[in-house]
């Protein structure tokens, strides 16, 4: 099968480096089917449309902002199974530069007004939605209705109901829905997940996840500073802690015991920091902390016979895993996003399970809403 023969030398190097450290695990190894504890799974995926195997998937980026230009478009150049072939934007003035830089045909370039015409474009297999969180539902549903597989950035959407609409639209159209949880594809993080699955240090006794950066408070005229657009620490960074605790423990919490949010003092102001405590079915608890004004970054798992952690847990480069008995989980990979996109492309080409499907990410949004409710009411909230 063509995908087994790496054609991109840089990509081959990345794979070989990971394989040399014993950290290259098969896609789909992490629980993301209906039986896995960290998976959502209540919505079985129908048999998806499968493009001809052996060809690269044509990717159209929707939303030409910071993450698309700084990370995803460059990372697509390093992939083995994807090709950046299309652009969708609300700012047509951005198109000439992107078309020149990435050799994109004019007929593969769309605006939000014309994007539904992409249904007739056989060169595009996937639409990657990279826009403010509050817009993910609408753009993803439109992408699915155009018959294209959907990759959507984190956090998946504002509410579990919006997530479900995205899942339903993809199911109806026979396309896959992957969320851009790059850490779930990252080889060192996958090694940590293996330690939990194998109970390598015995049964778990606790966990914490912290993700924050010491920036300036987001301005009111930018979507990251607007609560109803999905700005704020909990959605933007906290989703890494919620998702990290899910894959790190392979458990889903049953309640938010308590939560606190420090919010901007203005209408529609976002949370600058959020702290929370989750409880699991066996009574174990985990602590989460997230911020857009304070720096911290780690995922730590305690077990009866030791601990293991990622510190830091989610920068683009330099994630590092270690254990209480002195093991280092492996060197960081040079480019997380290219691994993520190739994994997702292979799942489409081979008709296999996604590592981070919408059904899994919907669980995290349910937890986020429960954290907000607990912070607002001062009470424990069942999930
Ligand atoms: P930016 O603000 O830099 O870009 C967002 C882009 O979305 C805009 O440039 C615009 O592109 C498009 N857009 C569509 N509708 C709107 C709207 N109503 N208001 C503003 N912009 C709109 O954000 P980022 O690129 O940093 O983030 C985009 C998404 O990617 C978010 O969901 C974020 O959480 C996620 N992200 C994920 C990261 C990861 O590591 N996985 C890292 C960073 C972000 P255009 O002008 O082309 O229409």
Automatic annotation (TrEMBL):
Molecular-function annotations in GO: nucleotide binding; oxidoreductase activity
InterPro entries xrefs: Gfo/Idh/MocA-like_OxRdtase_N, Gfo/Idh/MocA_oxidrdct_glycsds, GFO_IDH_MocA-like_dom, Glc-Fru_OxRdtase_bac, NAD(P)-bd_dom_sf, TAT_signal
Coiled coil: none
UniProt-annotated stretches for the region Disordered: 34-53
Domain of life of the source: Bacteria
Limits of the Gfo/Idh/MocA-like oxidoreductase N-terminal domain: 58-181
Signal peptide region: 1-40
Residues of the GFO/IDH/MocA-like oxidoreductase domain: 190-308
UniProt keywords, alphabetically: Oxidoreductase, Signal
Name by which UniProt lists this protein: Glucose-fructose oxidoreductase
Organism: Neolewinella marina
């Amino acid at each position: 099968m063509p995908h087994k023969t790496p054609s991109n030398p840089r990509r081959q190097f990345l794979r070989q480096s990971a394989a040399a450290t014993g950290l290259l695990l098969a896609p789909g190894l992490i629980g993301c089917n209906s039986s896995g504890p960290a998976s959502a799974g209540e919505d079985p995926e129908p048999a998806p449309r499968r493009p001809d195997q052996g060809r690269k998937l044509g990717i159209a980026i929707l939303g030409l902002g910071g993450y698309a230009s700084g990370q995803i478009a460059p990372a697509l150049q390093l992939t083995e199974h994807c090709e950046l072939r299309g652009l969708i934007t609300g700012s047509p003035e951005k198109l000439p530069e992107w078309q020149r830089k990435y050799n994109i045909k004019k007929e593969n370039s769309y605006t939000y007004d014309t994007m539904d015409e992409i249904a007739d474009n056989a060169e595009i297999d996937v639409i990657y939605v990279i826009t403010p969180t509050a817009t993910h539902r609408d753009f993803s549903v439109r992408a699915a209705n155009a018959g294209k597989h959907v990759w959507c950035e984190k956090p998946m959407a504002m509410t579990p109901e919006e997530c479900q609409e995205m899942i339903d639209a993809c199911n109806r159209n026979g396309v896959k829905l992957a969320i851009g949880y790059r850490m779930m594809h990252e080889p060192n993080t996958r090694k940590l997940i293996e330690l939990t699955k194998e109970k390598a240090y015995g049964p778990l006794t606790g966990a914490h996840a912290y993700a924050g950066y010491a920036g300036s408070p987001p301005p009111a005229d930018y979507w990251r500073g607007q609560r109803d657009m999905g700005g704020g620490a909990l959605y933007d960074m906290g989703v890494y802690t919620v998702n990290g605790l899910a894959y790190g423990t392979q458990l889903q919490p049953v309640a938010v015991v308590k939560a606190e949010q420090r919010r901007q003092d203005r209408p529609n102001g976002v949370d600058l920091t959020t702290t929370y405590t989750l409880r699991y079915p066996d009574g174990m608890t985990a602590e989460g902390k997230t911020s857009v004004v304070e720096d911290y970054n780690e995922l730590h798992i305690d077990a009866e016979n030791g601990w293991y952690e990622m510190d830091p847990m989610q920068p683009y480069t330099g994630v590092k895993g270690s254990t209480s008995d002195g093991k280092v989980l492996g060197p960081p990979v040079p480019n997380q996003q290219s691994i993520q996109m190739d994994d997702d492309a292979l799942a489409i080409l081979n008709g296999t399970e996604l590592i981070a499907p919408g059904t899994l990410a919907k669980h995290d949004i349910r937890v986020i809403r429960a954290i907000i409710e607990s912070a607002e009411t001062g009470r424990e909230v069942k999930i």
